[in-house]
Amino acid sequence: MTSQHQLVQSYDIVASQWRAKIEGLGYAAAYRWMVEICGIQSEHVNVIDIGCGTGDFSRALIEVAGPPNCLTLLDPAEQMVRTATRSLIHIAPRLKPLVAKLEDKPQQRHDVILCAHVIEHFADLGAALSLLKSYLAPDGTLLLVVSKPHWCNWIIWTRWRHRWVRPTRMLDLFAQAGLSCEWDASFPAGPPSRSSHAYLVKHL
Ligand SMILES: C[S@@+](CC[C@H](N)C(=O)[O-])C[C@H]1O[C@@H](n2cnc3c(N)ncnc32)[C@H](O)[C@@H]1O
After folding, report:
1. CB distance 50 to ligand 1 below 6 Å
2. What does the pLDDT profile of the chain (204 residues) look like in tens digits?
3. For residue 52, how far is its CA from the centre of ligand 1 (angstroms)?
């Protein structure tokens, strides 16, 4: 694993190209598919995108379900937060950009948490899930995307030194963290179907 400081610097450097990569590799379409199949409603709800990158999971939510009451974009990489804010400000008027880490104390609880490809950077996955739980309102919904075992993750690892987790292991980790996985699935097509797994999670 690289240090947190190096990791954040690396994400800052790629911020200007991130959105094109996410679109081109099919992750934006995968996030839209997930929001739609999970039936997420955004009207009157407060949403936070944790490790938002260039805001592409949030964009998927807005395109499928409309703008939420308030959307917080949280990421420790300042350039990611700036790029996400510029990209979304015209389609989601109530934006709260926040240069911060998941480990920082939540300022409030949220009805919907979006979190894609972030906990892979934590050495202790159980601790990362407990932190996510602390951001979640009692009846809230966490949409989580986590890398799964596939050879393509070795290629990504050479650049990002991330981890990947078997879906069966994730189910154990959710239970240990006091979370309940209500739905999970592979993505239907393209690189996301090979690299990643989708989960809808609530409080136990
Ligand atoms: C693989 S990118 C995913 C970005 C976005 N969620 C997406 O799907 O395109 C991982 C993101 O997590 C952020 N990140 C790294 N460490 C974090 C931490 N401790 N708390 C919150 N976000 C973190 C990085 O800055 C980066 O933007």
Report:
1. yes
2. 469 999 999 999 999 999 999 999 999 999 999 999 999 999 999 999 999 999 999 999 999 999 999 999 999 999 999 999 999 999 998 999 999 999 998 889 999 999 999 999 999 999 999 999 999 999 999 999 999 999 999 999 999 999 999 999 999 999 999 999 999 999 999 999 999 999 999 999
3. 6
Is 122 touching ligand 1 by the criterion CB < 6 Å? no
The total number of residues shown for the chain amounts to 204
- Decide if 99 contacts 50 (C-beta within 8 A): no
Q: From edge to edge, which strands make up the β-sheet containing 179-186? A: 95-99, 70-75, 46-50, 110-116, 136-147, 196-203, 179-186
Full set of structural domains in the chain with CATH: 4-203 (3.40.50.150)
What ranges make up the beta strands (E) of the chain? 46-50, 70-75, 95-99, 110-116, 136-147, 179-186, 196-203
Residue 203 alpha carbon to ligand 1 centre in Å = 23
